[in-house]
Amino acid sequence: MAWQIRPWQPRKLVAMPGIATITPVLNDAANLPAAVGSIQHQDNVEHIVLSVGPSSDDSLSVAQGLAQRDGRIVVVENPSGRTAAALNLATAATSADVVVRVDARAVLPENYVKHAVETLEATGAGNVGAAQNPVGHTLTERAIAAAMRSRVGSGGVAYRGDGHARQVDTAWLGVFRRSALDEVGGYDERFTRNQDAELNIRLAKAGHPVWFDPRLIVDYRPRPTLRKLAQQYFEYGQWRMRTIKKHRDSAKPRQLAAPVIVIGLVVAVILALVVSSLFWFVPAAYVVGLLVVGLMSEGPLAQRLLTAGALFTMHITWGAGFLKALVQRGST
Length: 332
Prior knowledge:
Layout: E1 19-25, H1 32-40, E2 45-52, H2 59-69, E3 73-77, H3 83-92, E4 98-101, E5 106-107, H4 112-123, E6 127-134, H5 139-149, H6 151-154, E7 166-168, E8 172-177, H7 178-183, H8 195-205, E9 210-220, H9 226-246, H10 257-274, H11 281-295, H12 301-327
Parallel strand pairs: 1-2, 1-4, 2-3, 6-9
Antiparallel strand pairs: 4-8, 5-9, 6-8, 7-9
């Protein structure tokens, strides 16, 4: 069945002189050429803005080399290295009416921009987001990708699963109506993570709905090790809680799953040590459950076992980060 946009009072973009992409870059020398290459194959992109933070690899020189070969590419430096600041600096470097966020670890499919702009026009949305398709290159990356695609790992968010076009709370990446982005003041630069979700909350409150377009399927390369995955998800948990502190009406029941798991495991271990060894059943059952999910995933046995380990890492670190931010003072 052909994909259809929900038929509700279509509006047209007003006077669109062009489209620009914005990309935050930090230690992304290896991934940047593929990301930029996928942008170059899109229609009607007038500017490709790369906002480069202080990297330990050759990110800046790679970005400058790409700019020398394509006059549409603009390189701006982001001294803070923070993603939100990078995106705001990149947005300020262009006057385009449509701003397309493309991360350096993402690869856009053909007609991505065309389809997203169609949805902006048809729905009057302030932002149209994509579905994230984690794709690993190494054994560990493939295991992490399987964990991220799993509902046990994703928590059922729209951009990590199948679905129909609809208005959502948040979406991955984003194709923004520039006027809406400017109206709400862009990204909050105090946010290290979850700055996209926080921005989408403000857009929706200002009357600029956020839409998920399932035609926009973007490949994403996961972190290469469980250690880096743990750091990523700990920060995700922290900043999700800080987003809730800033926007108290944004909390969702699914966001309590990982913190509850962490609390439940800690309590069970304490009771097993102090009261009765029978309480070891709780962490044992949890681990067995993850092993079952991992073994049911694709790939060789080693990869499936790593998938179970990735799920454990994602749950525990996200939940721990959430709880840490919960007890800390302040919202950011």
